[in-house]
Amino acid sequence: MKRKTFTQSQIRYLRDHAEEQYENMRGSRSFRNVEFLLYIALVVLIALSIRTFIAEPIRVDGDSMIPTLVHNEDMLVEKMTYWFNDPLRGDIIICFYPGYTESCVKRVIGLPGETVEVRDGLFYINGNALDESAYWNDTIVGNMSPVTVGAREVFVVGDNRNGSKDSRNPTVGCIPYAKVVGRVVAVVFPFDEIETISRVTYS
After folding, report:
1. Could you write out the three-class secondary structure of the chain?
2. Buried b (16+ CB within 10 A) or exposed e, 52-84
3. Cβ atoms of residues 180 and 93 within 8 Å
4. C-alpha distances in angstroms, 58 versus 93, 122, 123?
5. Which tens digits make up the pLDDT trace of 143-163?
6. CB–CB of 164/158 below 8 Å?
7. Which residues have CB under 8 Å from 126's CB, separation 6+?
8. What is the CATH number that goes with domain 60-196?
9. Cα–Cα–Cα angle for 135, 74, 172, rounded to 5 degrees
10. What is the distance between the alpha carbons of residues 92 and 85, in angstroms, rounded to a whole number?
11. Fewest C-beta atoms under 10 Å: which of 15, 110, 173, 182?
């Protein structure tokens, strides 16, 4: 069989065509790579937005909220409620203390304009004893002179009343709304401890 030979122009055409095909393929792979990276960036952005503005799991550190929350449990913190509503008595919130870089978890018991006092082992709000039997059945150690909660502030305490640094401490005081991050709505880990957490209604 006679071998077919190519002219120089045919060889040049085939070479140019092959290079064109290669560039097209390389461009296509690059596009797919860029598209994939953009997809990953979008997923990360959405995840960060959810954690920043909507909800975030946070680990309990310490025993100040026993028995409601236990050390090393993961709680789900919902952040949208306080965009439209003020914190209410009975809410468990995540907040920042003055000068703290780590957030704290506490329960709201005092609202703006109210007077909070500790005497005879109980909290008093505007002179009325606060029934905390839903989460505390012991006697509070020590008294606290009456404190009036400022405008757009809350008085917060740990459910472990005798093992919590909270608004009773002068270095903490009442917490401004601006320092409130969100509301604890559930325990999500360990899995055998999963439960929702509702606002306590006081009688």
Report:
1. CCCCCCCHHHHHHHHHHHHHHHHHHHHHHHHHHHHHHHHHHHHHHHHHHHHHHHEEEEECCCCCCCCCCCCCCEEEEECCHHHHCCCCCCCEEEECCCCCCCCEEEEEEECCCCEEEEECCEEEECCEECCCCCCCCCCCCCCEEEEECCCCEEEEECCCCCCCCCCCCCCCCCEEHHHEEEEEEEEEECHHHCEECCCCCCC
2. eeebbebebebebbbebbeeebbbbbebeebee
3. yes
4. 12, 30, 28
5. 999 999 999 999 999 999 999
6. yes
7. 114, 115
8. 2.10.109.10
9. 60
10. 14
11. 15
Structure-token pair, residue 23: 């560039």
Which amino acid is present at 5? T
Residues annotated catalytic, as ranges = 64, 106
Q: Which two tokens stand for residue 104?
A: 């704290």
- Tokens 């472990």, residue? 160
Q: How far is it, in rounded angstroms, from Cα 15 to Cα 101?
A: 64
Integer angstrom CA distances of residue 169 from 2, 65, 104? 101, 16, 14
Which tens digit of pLDDT belongs to each residue from 2-44?
445 657 676 666 676 666 665 665 555 565 676 777 777 776 6
